[in-house]
Amino acid sequence: MKGPSTRGWLVLAGALWLGGIGTGVAALARYSLTPGAAPVPTVTWPEGTRLSRLAGRPVLVMLAHPKCTCTRASLAELAEVMAHARGRADAYVLFLRPEGLEDGWEQGDLWRTAASIPGVTVLRDPDGVEAKRFGATTSGHVVLYGADGRLRFSGGITVARGHVGDSPGREALERVLLEDGEGGGTPVYGCALRERREG
């Protein structure tokens, strides 16, 4: 009885290889479309925050992890929002610095990208204290408080992890800023803010 031919083994190996690639692609797609933990945002401007809020001015805050590559897309979308808003809101990006890490750990490429967005003030968030105050659990989470200090939008402004382009979150945020419309909330796609990423 003859064993499988070389051709048969090659076909089997090729099928297994393609199956492995398909499984990997499916897992990656599933990961990119899985939002972070549901946030519990503060419905009014949080007491005790070190961020300043001028009376009569909306304030936008993004909470971010400096080592989360997904956040690059969130910053690209924030740049679009700020360009369209044309000074209608004050804006902050706060980068987590976990306790015990050296000064400047958070000031990498994402920090520089955020600092290059006109109208944005970039600050460190030691041990995620401000993220807790604003109820954020995932990098890229954006909150917008209106001129009255009440929450108008809370959520992500990308449609998936690391995805740049139109999204319901960005559209809702711009609707609030440009038309004083309703914002609501959208899922946030990014790394957990409490996750320690040294890469």
Task: Provide key terms for this protein.
globular, RedB protein, six-stranded mixed beta sheet, Glutaredoxin, alpha/beta, 34% helix, 5 helices
Question: Could you explain how this protein is built, in words?
Answer:
It comes from Corallococcus macrosporus. This is RedB protein. With 199 residues, this protein is α/β, with parallel strands linked by helices. It has a domain of 128 residues: Glutaredoxin (3-Layer(aba) Sandwich). It is 34% helix and 17% strand. It is built from five helices and six strands, in the order H-E-H-E-H-E-H-E-E-H-E. Strands 3-2-1-4-5-6 form a six-stranded mixed β-sheet. Helix 5 links the parallel strand 5 and strand 6. Helix 2 runs parallel beside helix 5. The chain is globular. About 5% of the residues have low confidence.
CATH superfamily of the domain at 59-186: Glutaredoxin
Main sheet attributes: strand count, strand direction, barrel closure: 6 strands, mixed
> How far is the first residue's CA from the last residue's CA?
55 Å
Order of helices and strands: HEHEHEHEEHE
The whole-number mean of residue pLDDT values reads: 84
Computed CA radius of gyration, to the nearest angstrom: 21 Å
Order of the strands making up the biggest sheet: 3-2-1-4-5-6
Helix fraction, binned, reads 25-40%
Task: Give me the count of strands.
Answer: 6
